[in-house]
Amino acid sequence: MGAGPVHLDKALASFAAIWSPRVVARMNDYDIRIAHAKGDHVWHVHENTDEFFLVLDGRFDIAMRSGDGAEHTVVLREGDAFVVPRGVTHRASSPGASILMCEPTGTSSTGDFHEGDIPDHVDSTVGHPLGGDTGR
After folding, report:
1. What global pTM score does this model have?
2. Residues 6 or more apart from 126 whose CB is under 8 A from it?
3. Other C-beta atoms within 10 Å of 34: how many?
4. How far is CA 22 from its chain centroid?
5. CA–CA separation, 114 vs 89, rounded Å?
């Protein structure tokens, strides 16, 4: 991360991996991350932090489970923002989108707990540096 501005379209064009967030900035103890989304993520939960999403393009769905196990889905489109509250089990899915996320530095993309195996197309990471394509 340099001292200059980050153009999000150029940053997104610098990598192709899906579900593999890149850190574009840090603010206090928070990462500002961008990612490409396509297909299903893994059901997971962040016990101690909320998770902020802003859809930059495409459609991004967030399925959530209530305490009794009932599921509901929030559908987000370009320009929509949403916060998944801490402690809520959720899974994102998308037919194709680019997203911006804000969460504490060191937060795993697959949460504190996740269900089942992590699929090959989902990168379990605390965020990669922008420009550091992992090949995923």
Report:
1. 0.91
2. 31, 105, 106, 107, 108, 109
3. 23
4. 10
5. 9
Phi, psi (rounded to 5 degrees) for 117: -75, 150
What topology does CATH give the domain 8-121? Jelly Rolls (2.60.120)
- From first to last of its 136 residues, what are the pLDDT tens digits of the chain? 567 899 999 999 999 999 999 999 999 999 999 999 999 999 999 999 999 999 999 999 999 998 888 999 999 999 999 999 999 999 999 999 999 999 999 999 988 889 888 989 999 999 999 875 555 5
**Residue ranges per domain, the chain?**
8-121
Q: How far is CA 130 from the centre of its chain?
A: 15
- 111: which 2 tokens? 């949460």
